[in-house]
Amino acid sequence: MRGGPKTLAVVALAVLLIAVGLAACGGGDSSSSTTTAASQEQTEGKPSQDTSKQNSDKSDEGKSGSDGEGQSGSSGPSASEFTPKPHNDSGGGSASYKTKGGDNSVQEFGEEAGSSEFHAAAAALHNFLDARAEGNWAATCEYVSKTITESLEKLASQAKQLKDKSCAALLAALTNPAAMAALKTEAEQANVRSLRTEGEQAFVLYTGPHGAILAMPMANEGGDWKVSSLGGTPLN
């Protein structure tokens, strides 16, 4: 994996750009909704719709996804409604993730961070994953780097079907509700083992569902770690 955090961020945004294009071309067909780049699983099936309840059932407001009528999907709960959860990470460094004879550029990126930086970056990753799993897109965006947030908002401004052009609204519109179970599983099982830093950039290396080894690019903004992609990139 060559190119560092910026390369992974560009890949994530390229996938998002394709997703926005598909959503724009899909018209009122809800099957055109895609998961965010953060979800590594592709899901099939079309969410059921009951048009007779659109005016009477207000409880559906706040759920993620496009409403299929050319309007933006609700961004859901506010960031203030999100409460960070405690997580226990095993640590141990990136050595256990190295592959003999393989590409270990991420595992050997920069240097292993100290304990305080490790825990701060791990908390930022967990908060991002937990907020995303709850469908709290406003909180999710608070744990995303400024570069990614600005890029998301730029993409949202180009999506004519979205009335709300915010980062949260775009994530809500692009995330297939069928993917939420997988996002919840990743949030629950994520185990951070390493933080490799070089200046203001870093990679959090963690184990996800089914033993997947994932790398999340990070950026340090004013002393706070933020994720620099919408999903971890598999290393195995």
Structure description:
This protein has six helices and six strands, in the order H-E-H-H-H-H-H-E-E-E-E-E. With 236 residues, the protein is of the alpha+beta class. The chain has a domain at 1-11 and 90-236: Nuclear Transport Factor 2, Chain: A (Roll). Strands 1, 2, 3, 4, 5 and 6 form a six-stranded antiparallel beta sheet that branches. Residues 6-12 and 14-73 have low confidence and may be disordered.
Give the tags.
about 15% strand; alpha+beta; about 240 residues; about 35% helix; Nuclear Transport Factor 2, Chain: A
Overall SS class: alpha+beta
Secondary-structure arrangement, i.e. CATH architecture of the domain at 1-11 and 90-236? Roll
**CATH-defined topology of the domain at 1-11 and 90-236:** Nuclear Transport Factor 2, Chain: A
Gap between N and C termini, in Å? Answer: 11 Å
For this structure, what is the CATH class of the domain at 1-11 and 90-236? Answer: Alpha Beta
Indicate the percent of residues in helices: 25-40%
Mean pLDDT: 78
Mind sketching the topology for me?
Blueprint: H1 4-25, E1 111-112, H2 115-133, H3 137-142, H4 146-158, H5 167-174, H6 180-189, E2 191-198, E3 201-207, E4 213-221, E5 224-227, E6 233-234
Antiparallel strand pairs: 1-2, 2-3, 3-4, 4-5, 4-6
